[in-house]
Amino acid sequence: MTPYRLVRREDVRLEPALPGHSEGLTRMVLVGGATGATHTGLTLVALEDGHVDTHLHSFESSFYVLSGEPVLYLDGRGVRLEPDACGAIPVGVPHAWRADERAEWIEMASPRPRGPDQPPDTFWLGGAPDEPGESLDLRDPRNRNLFHLNAGDMDVERLRVGASVGAPTVSASMATAALLYSGITVKMLVDKRLDAQLHTMFMVGYQPGAVAHPHDHPFEEAYYMLEGEVDVVADDDRYTLRPGDVFWTGVGCVHAFYETRGGTVKWLETSAPGPPDRHSYRFERDWEYLAERLEEGAATA
Q1: Do 4-146 and 174-291 come out as alike in CATH topology?
Q2: pLDDT band at 195 (very low <50, low <70, confident <90, very high)
Q3: CATH architecture entry for 174-291
């Protein structure tokens, strides 16, 4: 069996982290090397009336703010983030964090951070800046690594309507597009557009009755539940996922998602490495169809 991992919300325990380089920081590694992942390092982070010193990584990371208004110091600028803000932190780029009150976010790293018995992959440069930070302005081209998911960004009906030139959002393009299929809406958040090269982060929405049939990938996926309930089947094991739950599938793990309760569902998803241009999905039913055709051909012959 190919590995998968389930973390229930009630089993999440945040612990103090990065002693000597932070204050008010707690976190829990949800998916990483200790849980069988190679490319995924998924962590729930909380920062309360504290900071994380300036540092850089030899891996790539991204984040999605769940609550609070942390300040991210990136590329020489401080930006105050709000819930649903997200972004990419490229390899080797110095950054730091600060929060006056409690803030929580999901942090994704690819490849997964190294263990304590391996060479270092995080390098400390000094204390965190103390500037208050500017509000995130998506129309400012300098915010090339940051994005904010607005309530209407996954609303297909809203996206049908043209936006005026003075609309307070990024200019409409493929960067603002949402993909809709089989009752599923996908909105890309972090990819090469934000200078992420090693992984992607996106939001997934399910309408009542939506389904993703059994399939697998040549990459790892992680799912952080935000709203609603959905059934996941992984290697023939079935679970119901609820807000705060985390699921992860390794390469080759055959999995499927089913909305069976008549409600809507939303989760944050990551893929690592980033999906290839072709063959990112391998649906079981397509290859079963081929096998049937081949059997029919052999019988006829």
Answers
A1: yes
A2: very high
A3: Sandwich (2.60)
